[in-house]
Amino acid sequence: MKKSKYIVLGIIITVGLALAIGILWHVFHTQEENNNAGMSYQLDENAEEWDASGVTPQDDTSGIKIPGYGTIYFASGSREQSITLYNPKENTCYFVFSLSIDDDTVLYESGYVEPGKAISEVKLSEAPQAGEHTLYITISTYDLETEMALNNAVVKCDLQVG
Amino acid sequence: MKRMKKIGALAMACAMCAGVSMQSLATEASTDFTFEYKNDPTYTVSIPDSVTLTQEGTEMSITAEDVAYLDGQKVSVTIAGTSAYRDQMVLEGKTESGGNASLRYQFIMDDGSVIESNAGQDIVAVGKEVASFTENGTETFTVKPVLEGSSSIKKGVTYTGSMTYSIELVDA
């Protein structure tokens, strides 16, 4: 009788330990799978190679490429502002940028900017006042060889100063 | 019997502890997000750099690229000014004797409408829209010299001039 009790006890302990080990193994094994595989998605069979040339600038477009802007945000009370004044690399002319607010005094003018280069920080002659304004970015273009003036553009955009 | 019960309870407790440990062994992961909102260009408009006029007229094109997320607006290209007096659509030159010569020119649009200036008739070109875009595309029109109706047109003169375009987002 005593012997059979120990046998039953042994079985209970064994089952308990086996259950514990099984649970722990499952936890670690699942974590390792997730860590190695990241998201557990499968490849979408509808995905195909896509030609992006239709929506990216075509190098063979003739003319002078003028960058346009959505709303620009300047900090009030500061003469130093961040804005990307870019001359697209496809162009064959220098850009000269000048900035004015509400078509008033010119607050900034650059020197020649070569194709492929951009000015990222400008120092205005005076700090803009807080509020909603219109920013005028005048782009004067000049032939790279002769420096003869070519057609120009004025890009207007909303300016938020806050 | 009592001892067996105790040992049995201990074994079951071990199994329960292993289950509870699932919670404490859970790992945490996090993702850091950053975004720098820059005042970068959002679209591109190509304007003609130079156009050589012919008597029959010359085609010129304006193209817009990277046009997206306009929220009901359009990219509008209008005439902002010219190099001539009072922003007239006029080309200017010098005769061999040094005299002034001028020549009007006009844009003939796809729909047949004409954009030109005429000081004598108070017709101005500034502000006239030459192209608009709600998506990527090209608009083409014809530029043509006006060879009649002015005594200032002289032969043997090279006439030159430039135009400034205004580009902005406006309500469509």
Would you give an account of this structure?
The complex is a heterodimer of chains A (162) and B (172). By secondary structure, chain A is an alpha+beta fold. Chain A has 2 domains: 37 residues; 90 residues, Immunoglobulin-like (Sandwich). Chain A is built from 1 helix and 8 strands. In chain A, the strands form 2 sheets. In chain A, strands 2-8-7-4-5 form a 5-stranded mixed β-sheet, with no helix packed on it. Chain A is elongated, with a radius of gyration of 33 Å. Chain A starts with a helix and ends with a strand. Chain B has 172 residues and is mainly beta. Chain B has a single domain, classed as Immunoglobulin-like, CATH 2.60.40. Chain B is built from 1 helix and 9 strands; from the N terminus they run H-E-E-E-E-E-E-E-E-E. In chain B, strands 1, 2, 4, 5, 6 and 8 form a 6-stranded antiparallel β-sheet that branches. Chain B has a 3-stranded antiparallel β-sheet with strand order 7-3-9, with no helix packed on it. The radius of gyration of chain B is 36 Å and the shape is rod-shaped. Chain B starts with a helix and ends with a strand. Chains A and B meet through helix 1, strand 1, strand 3 and strand 8 of A and helix 1, strand 1, strand 2 and strand 9 of B. Strand 1 of chain A pairs antiparallel with strand 1 of chain B.
